[in-house]
Design goal:
Elements: E1 2-6, H1 26-31, E2 46-52, E3 58-64, H2 66-70, E4 74-78, E5 90-91, E6 98-99, H3 100-107, E7 112-113, E8 119-125, H4 128-137, E9 139-144, H5 151-155, E10 181-189, H6 192-198, E11 201-209, E12 221-226, E13 232-236, H7 241-252, E14 259-263, H8 279-289, E15 293-296, H9 299-305, E16 312-320, E17 326-338, H10 345-351, E18 361-369, H11 383-401, H12 405-411, H13 431-439, H14 442-445, E19 452-461, E20 466-474, E21 480-484, H15 492-504, E22 511-515, H16 532-559, E23 566-569, E24 572-575, E25 582-584, H17 585-590, E26 600-607, E27 613-623, E28 630-640, H18 647-666, E29 697-703, H19 724-736, H20 747-755
Parallel strand pairs: 1-29, 2-15, 13-14, 17-18, 21-22, 28-29
Antiparallel strand pairs: 2-8, 3-7, 3-9, 4-8, 5-6, 10-18, 11-16, 12-13, 12-15, 16-17, 19-27, 20-21, 20-26, 23-24, 24-25, 27-28
Length: 757
């Protein structure tokens, strides 16, 4: 069930935007015709495989590859010696910067293996079995070192040191001693001590989350070929093929112009496919042997060697007056970065209090390296973690004050014109409307039974814009082709086609959207941060508008009238002189050779003004007092979506984020043994929610249009994963009467809490 709520205002009437056409790529995907990263086959193609460290932390003394190279069928063997030793270089991309040197060292360890599963060598062979045999023949001599995975243990004095060249940034004076703390982030407003002095009630707690994986169904996969002329091609399942091109060029010391990357269909990413793991290795192997190389990760490799998001410790203290006014907040965030710096703690700091207008606060975040896989983005990276702690504390504050939890959030909610905790002034936000939507929803008033509880929580994501390119071409029969440079991970083909169709006045069936390779379209940032419908959609719209302007000129030329005498209505040029009639797009396309040649336009831009997103969720649970098992009974999510270009896809984004958040709250976690080895590297033991674990997730789409987008769009894919951790935890507390502070809320933990009452 889905409701759509508009802020009372004149709403533009659209013919295509806001409808629910069939997904352009749907038929190929449900019939198995869609080509994913592992589906490409090339003549003479070899199989590439990776040898990985069995140790969580070890110095690499020597690697002997002679036996592997001598094995019949082995065509290439590479180690770190086959890659240039790069200097540190920050590269912008998505929600945060990445260090190219760290990415290269994560792809292939040079002097030390920093986590179990860290790549130390790779081979290409004529068959998978020969590749496996070759890996076994590679002899690696290690000096095993002490390891550390727990984030607070890694911060402690005397902890095993991962990098001798990390000196904590963000601290004055600058440290002279290396540390596992890569960066400290601080955000402050007002006088915190004075704010707590004003408070009549204080809620505080220490909360923890475990590292969790994005859980995409398709493992990482690519095919690469290094031509004799130095020209390279890569076919890759990624969220950004331009980023793949750039990173491969830097890691291998190549010119960007020598690499062409073609995007395959992507079987899920959620932020986890915004970097490279296999592509540089496949190219290096192909360069050595001259043949195409295909690499596909096994599922355990995905878990052991690709980015989960951080495990974390969240310390929260909130104070409020009797009337519910929150006067002060104090938050400390400690996030695992994995083997290299770059946890999402900075976005965690930015978003922690973004839903609240609090005059006095301090937020401190620590980015901490640990002997675990390097983390990468996962939907609203960093925000679900900090929101879990804050929303738990807000709920406890409501209990102490005897206030309804929604009323407490409404009283302290940010509104238009208020300054966000992280700096900007909010404009055209629909946060209060989401709170009103769940407050007035029948779900919030529905009765509960024994052992059942209801929780609410809110969440925020700032969304981003950035560089995008789109091209629109008119075919000779009057249809349109829309080419963009962003892989479709959430229905963006449909939204691009719909926006072009709206501007051109075409039926959606007459618009064909494609995702072009890096040699066929201008640069676009990766698909992440919920930027594609906003930023790339803006480029599509502007390109379509340029075409409309050109079509009016062509019609005026044919009619021999001034351009200002021509309007574009419902896919046709209409002259103010009724005697001229009209010229359809198909008619103008047929005459294009007489009016200036092919009809098309390309727009490249750096989109600004992405509207932030807010969500408010209700969750009902039932806890089995015998087992501690939690059943999600009912879930309703309200979200400010700007304008829903394709409402069905927006609902799907919200429902998908909720499902992942529920898994994060109840089941999912990386489990390591005492040697630092992951014990549950497979979907059998790493438990993600399945259909039988979830009810129908109801959605409420609150449409407060973003005026900085031609159709009012805001990013929607990040926000829905932010509130569920807090909503589920608050519902469990309501059901059992005990605050649970450590995720996941597994049955043994809950049963222990019940027994401890």
């Amino acid at each position: 069930m889905s409701d759509v709520i508009d802020r009372p205002a004149a709403k533009a009437q659209f013919k295509v935007v806001g409808t629910r056409p069939v997904r352009p790529d749907g038929a190929d995907k449900v019939t198995g015709k869609a080509a994913y990263g592992a589906d490409l086959m090339l003549p003479g193609m070899l199989t590439g495989k990776i040898k990985r460290s069995p140790h969580a932390h070890a110095r690499i003394i020597a690697i002997d590859t002679k036996k592997a190279r001598a094995l019949a069928g082995v065509k290439a063997v590479i180690t770190a010696a086959d890659f240039p030793d790069l200097a540190s270089e920050e590269m912008a991309g998505g929600e945060s910067a990445a260090n190219v040197r760290d990415i290269a060292l994560n792809c292939m360890a040079r002097n030390a293996a920093l986590y179990e599963g860290h790549a130390v060598a790779a081979v290409a062979a004529t068959s998978a079995s020969i590749a496996d045999e070759a890996l076994a023949l590679i002899e690696v001599t290690y000096e095993v070192l002490p390891h550390v995975i727990d984030v607070e243990a890694a911060m402690a004095p005397g902890a095993p040191l991962l990098h001798a060249d990390i000196f904590t940034k963000g601290v004055e004076p600058a440290p002279t001693t290396p540390s596992n703390i890569a960066h400290r982030h601080d955000l402050t407003r007002g006088d915190v001590n004075a704010g707590f002095a004003e408070a009549d009630a204080i809620a505080e707690g220490r909360y923890t989350t475990a590292a969790v994986h994005q859980g995409y169904i398709e493992p990482h996969a690519c095919v690469a070929t290094f031509g004799a002329d130095g020209q390279c091609q890569v076919w890759s399942a990624s969220q950004g093929h331009f980023a793949v091109r750039t990173l491969c060029a830097k890691i291998l010391g190549l010119d960007t112009s020598d690499i062409r990357v073609t995007p395959a269909e992507i079987g899920g990413g959620f932020g986890g496919k915004t970097t490279v793991y296999l592509e540089p290795l496949a190219l290096a192997l192909s360069r050595q042997c001259g043949a195409p190389v295909r690499m596909v990760m096994a599922r355990d490799e995905v878990f052991r060697a690709t980015g989960p998001t951080s495990g974390a410790v969240i310390e929260v203290k909130l104070g409020a007056r009797r009337d519910g006014t929150i006067t002060a907040g104090q938050i400390v965030l400690k996030y695992q970065a994995g083997a290299f710096p770059g946890s999402p703690v900075h976005p965690g700091v930015m978003t922690a209090l973004a839903c609240y207008d609090i005059p006095n606060f301090t937020i401190t975040g620590y980015d901490v390296v640990t002997n675990s896989p390097k983390v990468t983005a996962y939907r609203a990276p960093g925000a679900p973690i900090s929101a879990f702690g804050v929303e738990s504390a807000v709920d406890d504050l409501a209990l102490k004050l005897g206030m309804d939890p929604i009323a407490l959030r409404e009283k302290n909610a940010v509104r238009d014109g208020m300054k966000a905790a992280y700096g900007p002034t909010f404009r055209n936000i629909g946060y209060v409307e989401t709170l009103e939507a769940i407050r007035d929803h029948p779900h919030y008033q529905a009765p509960l039974g024994p052992n059942q509880g209801r929780g609410v929580a809110v969440g925020f994501w700032f969304n981003i814009g950035g560089d995008s390119t789109a091209a629109v071409q008119i075919t000779d029969d009057g249809a349109a082709v829309v080419a963009t440079g962003n892989p479709d991970i959430g229905g963006s083909r449909a939204s691009m086609a719909m926006m072009a169709a709206e501007v051109l006045g075409l039926p959606i069936e007459k618009v064909r959207p494609i995702v072009a390779d890096t040699a066929s379209i201008g640069y676009s940032m990766l698909t992440g941060g919920s930027r594609t419908t906003f930023a790339t959609g803006m480029a599509v719209t502007q390109a379509a508008q340029q075409i409309v302007t050109d079509l009016k000129r062509r019609a005026a030329q044919i009619w021999e009238v001034a351009v200002d005498q021509v309007e574009w209505l419902d896919g046709a040029a209409v002259c103010r002189d009724p005697a001229k009639g009209e010229l359809t797009l198909a008619a103008l396309a047929a005459k294009s050779g007489e009016t200036g040649g092919p009809i098309g336009a390309q727009v490249s831009l750096n989109a600004q003004g992405a509207g932030p997103g807010f969500g408010a969720h209700i969750c009902d649970v039932e806890v089995d007092p015998e087992t501690g098992g939690v059943t999600i009974l009912r879930y309703t999510a309200a979200q400010d979506v700007g304008r829903a270009i394709h409402p069905a896809y927006v609902e799907g984004q919200v429902q998908g984020g909720v499902a992942q958040g529920i898994g994060w709250a109840l089941n999912e976690e990386y489990i390591f043994d005492t040697d630092g080895k992951m014990e549950n590297a497979g979907f059998l033991d790493y438990r993600v929610p399945v259909a039988s674990d979830l009810p129908m997730i109801d959605t409420i789409l609150v449409e407060v249009a973003n005026p900085r987008h031609p159709f009012g769009a805001k990013g929607v894919g990040e926000v829905p994963i932010v509130p569920p951790l807090g909503a589920v935890a608050n519902a469990v507390r309501a059901a059992i009467g005990v605050r649970m502070t450590d995720l996941p809320l597994s049955p043994p933990k809950i049963r222990a809490a019940i027994d401890g009452r």
